[in-house]
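Archive record
______________

***
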Amino acid sequence: MATVKCKYCGKQFDREKEPFVQIPTGQTFRYAHGECYLQQVNTGLVKEKYIIWDPAKSTTCFWCHKAIFSNQDDVIPMPQLPGKFVHKTCNETHPVDDKEELLLYLIQLYNLKDDYILPKFMLQLSDYEKNYQFTYSGMLKSLKYWYEVKKKPVNASYGLGIIPHIYKEARDYYYKLWQAQEQNKGKNIFEFVPKDIEVKIPVPKRQIIKRKLFTFLDEEEINGE
C-alpha cells in the first residue's frame, strides 16, 4: 500500500490502486487523483501537463526498468515472457542469448516473483553445463518437453533435477521432429488430402414374390397319385 494525500481534494488514497499524477515540487513530489487533476485542467486552474499513471496499465520495462504504460505506442509485449512489456528500442538493442532465454523460461514456468532466479536453479544449471556438457538450449528444450509435451505437473520445490534424466529423451524427440520436417520439405500437403467422393446408393425396390397357385390340372394330378 502506498497511501498519499491528493493535492486538490485533500483526501488520502492508495496510488497503487487508483490513477494518479505525480507533481514535482522542488526535489520531492506531491500526488493527486487523476480525476481531480483533469478537473483542474478542464477548469483552467492547472496548465501543466502531467502523465496520469494507471496502476492497471502501468508497469516497468523488463530491460531498462523504467516506468511504462502497456498501451503506449512504443511499448510491446515481451516475446519471451508473456505478461511483461518492453520498449521497442530496448527489445531491439537487447538480443537474448540461449542462457537468457532459459532463465526467462524459468521465470515464466515457476512464476518467480520479481523475476528472481533462485540460487538453487543457478547452481544446477552451472553444474549441468560444466559437468554434464549440457547446452542451455538443450536444457530449455528438455524442460519444454517435460512440461509442455508430456504435461507433467510443475513444482518449483523439485528444482531442475529432472533435466539429467530426460535430456537424452528430449533430444531424441526433437531430432525425430526435425527429421520429419526435413522429409516433408517442399511437399504440398494438399496432395495428400483425400478427395471427397460422392457415392449414390439407389433406394432398394421391393420385390414381390409371386405364390404359385393350384390349378385344376394340379389338383387332378395330386388326386391321381
User: Anything to note?
Assistant: Residues 96-183 form one domain.
